[in-house]
């Protein structure tokens, strides 16, 4: 059996910052409320003329360099986004051209904030069947462009970023187990309309702009805690391991309370969890690959370590993966 292993990572965070003081100046909120309910202090926001593919290209380039490859060696580019530049062409095709990854097939997919683990799962299938050697998984979102900045219940949560990883065929263990899933019946808890002309949906948004995100926060929070804990348990069990074997968990960085409740359910200690949400907020699918890059830079992951990545998001969807580094 061919193994699929992450051989390179890269991230990109835009420069502009909206801190909690700025959020206080645009909606009826407070630094104290945001910190207590979410743990977020600031979020990074793309420039007006900076789009999802601009960020994806930088993160993708960094991941390819980090893997010690050339763009021509990439066989497939998978790109997770809910804020594409266009419906067509796919963001992955724009990225393919800009990177010079001329030999790569490319497609986008939408698993919202579960996008990174979903991408690792797809990449693993193509590698284990021997179809491809190097798959570039990119997650990029400009959620700020889909945020209703009059809606205090959502606008304090989101930021922009891109994160990427190269998944390669390897003789070493890599992605050991994954678990992805969906609860489509609860999907209307997070919506952003495309062509659907739904008056009731549009009315839900304070600005009545149909292309902004709307969310039933409490419902999502309840789903997230259970989905993250259960999926994580399943990947550990599938691998024939216990939590004692796991040195680090990198969760989707949505909200400190969600992460805290999920890890209590899993029965693991805080020091095994990597968090950066206070600086970036929820950047959709890129949260996990950006956090993974930073955890590596900070020496939190060493060769041979077993780590769990776990996310949840729109759909509603979830995904967990257990990796040996
Ligand atoms: N500042 C001050 N008050 C606020 C704010 C704010 N920014 N936002 C909401 N409130 C108020 C509400 O209006 C409500 O007031 P009321 O009691 O007078 O009606 C009160 O605070 C409590 O609101 P709740 O929604 O019950 O607050 P909750 O504790 O659930 O926290 C939050 C809200 C932070 C949104 C939480 O529900 C959450 O994090 N949910 C999960 C969101 C998430 O992670 N989504 C990820 C998916 S996104 C994607 O896939 C792209």
What does this 3D model show about the protein?
The chain is α/β, with parallel strands linked by helices and 325 residues long. Helices cover 34% and strands 25% of the residues. The strands form four sheets. It has a five-stranded mixed sheet, with helices on both faces. Strands 8-13-12-11 form a four-stranded mixed sheet, with helices on both faces. Helix 8 runs parallel beside helix 9. The protein is globular, with a radius of gyration of 19 Å. The model has no long low-confidence stretch (mean pLDDT 97). Bound molecules: acetyl coenzyme *A. Acetyl coenzyme *A binds next to helix 2, helix 6 and helix 8.
Can you lay out the helices and strands and say which pair or pack?
Blueprint: E1 3-12, E2 16-19, H1 20-26, H2 31-38, E3 42-45, H3 52-66, E4 76-80, H4 91-99, E5 105-109, H5 115-128, E6 134-142, H6 152-155, E7 160-170, E8 175-182, E9 190-191, H7 199-204, E10 214-215, H8 217-238, E11 248-251, H9 256-266, H10 277-280, H11 287-297, E12 306-313, E13 317-324
Parallel strand pairs: 4-5, 4-6, 11-12
Antiparallel strand pairs: 1-7, 2-3, 6-7, 8-13, 9-10, 12-13
Bound molecules: acetyl coenzyme *A.
Short characterization:
The protein has 325 residues and is of the alpha/beta class. 34% of the residues lie in helices and 25% in strands. The protein is built from 11 helices and 13 strands.
Report the mean per-residue pLDDT as an integer. Answer: 97
Span of the ends, CA to CA: 18 Å
Percentage of residues in helical conformation: 25-40%
Number of helices: 11
Which shape, going by the Cα principal axes?
A: globular
Strand composition percent: 15-25%
- Biggest beta sheet attributes: 5 strands, mixed
**Strand line-up across the major sheet:** 1-7-6-4-5
Give the distinct bound molecules: acetyl coenzyme *A
> What assembly state would you assign to the polypeptide chains in this entry?
single chain
* H-E string: EEHHEHEHEHEHEEEHEHEHHHEE
For the secondary structure, the number of strands is 13
Q: What Rg, in angstroms, do the CA atoms define?
A: 19 Å
